[in-house]
Fold each of these.
Amino acid sequence: MKLLIGNRNYSTWSLRPWLVLRHFEIPFEDEVLQLSGSGWRDVLAERSPTGKVPVLIDGALVIPETIAIIEYLAETFPDKAIWPQGREARALARAAAAEMHGGFSALRSHAPMNLRASHPGKVDLDAVRGDLHRVETLWGRLLEKSGGPYLFGDFSGADAMFAPLATRLRTYDLPVSDMVGRYVEAIYALPAFQEWRGLALQEPWVVDDDEIDVIQGRVAPGTIV
Ligand SMILES: N[C@@H](CCC(=O)N[C@@H](CS)C(=O)NCC(=O)O)C(=O)O
């Protein structure tokens, strides 16, 4: 199996299935397709049916779309508990994953994932207040019920879906409850996440579209090194 991914520092969608593969010890290789530089969109268009990453390649099968990849892994490796035990818990985990996939647009646009950076105080809190409130409600309810440290107790596909959002809370030092703060710590403590982050920190590439100082006009494109 091979997973095509984007730059580890910035590519939220790539991080999600990569965490599932690595955490559940499914053998795979990965290949980074850059999300910046000359001709990057052409490379993506050649390699991915949607022109986006991640893409999972299993023999002749080529699967785009993060949720489809995670579901394929869950079906292919039913012994791995990628989704939690119990039909009701699985339904809630899939609902959370779908909500992440289609929602939280304010946090996604105002607080791009940037693992190597620390930008406290730079996000307009009014713009993301609704999303932060929903994070508190959703994670709070699930963590209270499961007892943590992950949303359904053990790490699952739902946590993989929310891991990038957890990093945004830390990068931009957004105001959260102790419970959400502990969950963010649990994501950062996951060995698979630590491996990804370690590799992200070694990447030399800068994607201006995901750099908040460029987005907010503090620095010119092409000047961050
Ligand atoms: N709906 C897709 C979204 C994938 C996506 O937007 N990936 C970004 C990288 S994180 C990408 O490939 N962007 C390139 C582009 O938009 O041209 C999924 O769930 O996998």
Note: The first strand starts at residue 2 and ends at 5.
Amino acid sequence: MNAKECSIKNPVIMEQDNKIRERLKDIDYKIMVMSGKGGVGKSTLSINLSIGLSLENLYVGLLDVDLHGPNVPKMLGLEDGKLQRREDGTVGPVYYSPNLKFMSIAPLLPKKDSAVIWRGPLKTSAIRQFIYEIEWGKLDYLIIDAPPGTGDEQMTVAQTIPDAYALVVTTPQEVSLLDVKRSINFCKQVNLPIIGLVENMSGMICPHCGKTIDIFKKGGGKELAKEMDIPFLGQIPVDPRVVTTGDAGRPIIASYPNSYTADAFRSLTRNLMDVTQASASKEKRI
Ligand SMILES: Nc1ncnc2c1ncn2[C@@H]1O[C@H](COP(=O)(O)OP(=O)(O)OP(=O)(O)O)[C@@H](O)[C@H]1O
Ligand SMILES: [Mg+2]
């Protein structure tokens, strides 16, 4: 008996699969933010994008599947946010605003800096649990913040959420672009459609003269998107306020809504809405 047949016959897994299907039915678009490279801004993007979508009056869930480095609660200013276990066994996520809620492993850890020392099967089962045990309710978007690379977490999302999309993040440097190509190839291998590519840390607006300084080059992401035939969804500049607002738990799109960078995040949000809706109507036609 192979592993697949074995899991099909396991009633516990079957019940979980049913619950997962039920939960996912209520969520229109599921988008995993990923990159082959660490530190390119996946969490920053997931958070500002989730807030951006929620400000468009959409219902949004943010699922942090970075089990070793769960940054979402801190970056949202909700490190002390508590999950609510209900009598029926479901768990209520933590609310950032009435239409944005999140789940992360962080609220389950004994201390803020506790290390999670887990391998594949434990990680897979935790992520599956994050989906079926959490009472997500009706959502327009579920944004999934992934750790760097193409490992257990990304594989679990791809296998558990059959209609998920990937949103790939890169920075303009060639080393990042090379690693990002690996993620793109991963998506192709596991049949995870890529909804678009974003170039983060793309040039910097000089606070003195207002001109763009290309400190990490610029435009590599756009070229890569063209080369790989993926929609290019936007560029986010380097902005020191992204760091300070992220550290302070007040994401830039909310704390500096009139800034050029918040504009860039809003434009990215709208482009994402356009491509997901276009892609959904294309699927309906087929
Ligand atoms: N556009 C930007 N301008 C300035 N700083 C940025 C920008 N985007 C992200 N950063 C900063 O870069 C650092 C890494 O960002 P972030 O944690 O979002 O990356 P990540 O890809 O999620 O990292 P990891 O791979 O560790 O999960 C953070 O300090 C963040 O504030
Ligand atoms: Mg991250």
Note: The mean pLDDT is 89.
